[in-house]
Design brief:
With about 475 residues, this protein is an alpha/beta fold. Helix content is about 50%, strand content about 15%. It has a 6-stranded antiparallel beta sheet with strand order 2-1-4-5-6-7, with helices on one face. A 6-stranded mixed beta sheet has the order 8-13-14-3-15-16. A two-stranded antiparallel sheet has the order 9-10.
Length: about 475
């Protein structure tokens, strides 16, 4: 697939760019000229759910994109969820995201969803996540890449039943997690003492008030008694100190009588203080419940009751019967089932699948050419499914991600015939030297001459037959986009 011409329009502003089929540099002298936005709008025009960038809302814009794929030319128009595709013989109207797979099956000649879902992650390296996305994760927005799915699609492996079971388990787990959240919310309401029913009749409220008032009386009395004892103890201790009394021990030693020498006085006081705090908290809780219930009295005599949205929500939530312990037990069980299914799918994906070894060999070869030590690229072919990125950083990660992406693009071409454009956004940076990027680009032009190359950067690069598309100002401004060379 090659991009031939692209036009984007926002209000009265319209820009058109014609691409070279070989190499293009989207160039600007500063980082705020809209290069990343421009690249993202291209993929948005292809039907992807690409999120808008700051200050520019894609759903309000119009896009015209001409692409060449499998020797055919297609003209696409997109505005919001509407997309039309004209192949020169007929124009077909589509609705996104419903018709996404149908659109891309027509553009690529491939109807395998596992492959179609991962084409963007293979060909596009976004400046935010693309240069750290190795084998699974978010490409941009909510668009994901998953190596297991791609390998499964390229190897012709089908795990239909297992995948359906996995999706069913995921849905069940999510539902039970929502239920558990309800149980936790209920617990928070009760802990806050807000356990009243907003639609309870007056007689029910009155009975509850009677119970609470009965509970409050002994608590209040005991609290008053303890406070009185503590006050008297304080006065007694001060009185004894003022008396300057002494006692004589059996050995004849005279000991002054003070708060500190009174045996058990301090411990007893601390125990009484702790009990006072507990009773005070219990009394506050009872009073809070009584206050809340008293507000509900006379509800039936009112023409209407002013009830906040949160009160109504709490009232409805408390009517739901949820066993938090049982729910958590089910969630744990579903997690274990989900893990087993994922392991089974992964095993079925790898079994007798030549794509795994081919990807590994290709990745290893490019990593070695880029001077990445074998310490970082394991000789084990399962390395391509690694989750360990902690040991990778800076230039090493940059080079390994690049090696993975080239391997994906190569195997996609060999297994499906899809020739993807290679789109790199801001390859220089993140501790990566200019010379390293130059070496990467030379590999692309050497091994992937049939693939259109598009690089967005504030740097110029030594590319054969390159076309420089310079952004002189922000994407939507009165300044024209400049093009140099073919």
């Amino acid at each position: 697939m090659r991009f031939i011409e692209f036009t984007l329009k926002e209000g009265f502003f319209q820009k058109t760019v014609k691409f070279s089929g070989i190499a293009n540099i989207i160039y600007s002298k500063k980082n705020t000229a809209g290069k990343t936005t421009f690249l993202r709008t291209i993929f948005y025009a292809l039907g992807y759910p690409v999120p808008s960038t700051k200050g520019i809302k894609f759903d309000d814009m119009e896009f015209w994109l001409t692409v060449e794929s499998n020797g055919e030319q297609y003209k696409l128009y997109r505005h919001n969820s509407y997309l039309s595709l004209d192949d020169g013989q007929e124009q077909i109207d589509y609705s996104l995201p419903t018709d996404f797979y149908e659109i891309h099956a027509k553009l690529t000649g491939c109807d395998n969803k596992d492959i179609l879902d991962n084409l963007l992650g293979a060909s596009y390296m976004d400046q935010e996540k693309g240069w750290t996305l190795l084998n699974r994760g978010k490409v941009i927005g909510n668009i994901s890449f998953n190596i297991e799915a791609l390998v499964r699609g390229l190897g012709g492996k089908e795990c239909v039943d297992e995948l359906l079971q996995l999706e069913a388990v995921k849905r069940q787990q999510k539902k039970y997690e929502y239920m558990h959240s309800v149980a936790e919310y209920q617990e928070a309401i009760y802990e806050a003492g807000e356990d009243i029913e907003y639609d309870a009749p007056d007689e029910v409220i009155e009975r509850r008030l009677e119970v609470l008032r009965a509970e409050r009386e002994p608590v209040s009395d005991e609290l008053k008694q303890i406070k009185s004892i503590l006050r008297k103890n304080k006065v007694l201790a001060e009185y004894i100190a003022d008396m300057k009394l002494t006692v004589q021990s059996s050995s004849g030693e005279e000991i002054p009588v003070t708060r500190d020498t009174l045996v058990g006085f301090t411990d007893n006081n601390e125990l009484l203080t702790a009990r006072r705090e507990m009773l005070a908290a219990e009394l506050d809780d009872i009073n809070r419940k009584i206050t809340a219930l008293e507000k509900q009295k006379g509800k039936e005599e009112q023409l209407f009751k002013v009830q906040t949205a949160i009160e109504a929500f709490d009232s409805d939530i408390k009517k739901i019967s949820v066993d938090a312990i049982a729910t958590q037990r089910i969630i744990d069980q579903l997690k274990r089932e989900r893990q087993k299914l994922q392991e089974r799918i992964r095993s079925m994906t790898k079994q007798d699948n030549s794509v795994v070894l081919e990807l590994h060999n290709c990745i290893s070869a490019y990593a070695k050419e880029l001077d990445v030590s074998e310490t970082y690229v394991s000789p084990n072919k399962d390395y391509i499914f690694t989750n360990d990125l902690k040991s990778l950083s800076g230039t090493i990660l940059h080079k390994i991600v690049f090696s993975f992406k080239l391997a994906y693009i190569k195997l996609i071409r060999e297994k499906t015939g899809i020739v993807l454009p290679i789109v790199l956004d801001s390859p220089t940076g993140r501790e990566v030297e200019h010379s390293t990027v130059e070496a990467m680009l030379k590999i692309i032009q050497r091994d992937y001459p049939d693939h259109q190359l598009i690089v967005a950067s504030i740097h110029d690069y030594d590319l054969k037959d390159k076309k420089i598309i310079e952004f002189k100002d922000r994407l939507f401004s009165s300044t024209d986009i400049m093009t140099v060379g073919e």
